[in-house]
Amino acid sequence: VRSTWFRLPGPPETRRHDLDFRVGGGEVLTGALSPSGHQELVEYHSTFLDIVPDERIVLACDIVVDHLRRTVSLVTIELAASVDGTALTHTEQYAAFGTPEQTAAAGAERKGSSRLSMNGLWRAVGGVIG
Q1: What's the rounded Cα separation, in Å, for the pair 11 and 116?
Q2: How far is CA 126 from its chain centroid?
Q3: Residue 51: which of 95, 19, 83, 15 has the closest Cα?
Q4: Which residues does residue 16 pair with via DSSP β-bridges, in sequence order?
Q5: Disulfide-capable partner of 26 in 47, 88, 95, 102 (CB 3.0 to 4.6 Å)?
Q6: Are 43 and 64 in contact (CB under 8 A)?
Q7: β 40-52/26-33 pair status
């Protein structure tokens, strides 16, 4: 179940996760975070643009913080057979919006979010991701 590894940290009562995994479908993930001691409402919205089973997923997504769009991304996830199992390649292009401080932090936020998701996936498959 994707919600076991793709979720926002924070209080469970503030979380919501909806998934419609098909081309044209999407995903919504919301939650309240307090990274700097101030609670923020974070929303993730995506639309699946291309799905090729066992090969590729392409999606467009945005991150909204306290009702203001922070980033918009185009994400490609490629899967390929390897001697150790399956190689996963994650490519993300993003545009950042907001104050200069917010846009400067966007790269670190996107990297941290991707790392959090990949770590969650790693745990969900029993730690067999290389």
Answers
A1: 16
A2: 20
A3: 19
A4: 30
A5: 47
A6: yes
A7: antiparallel
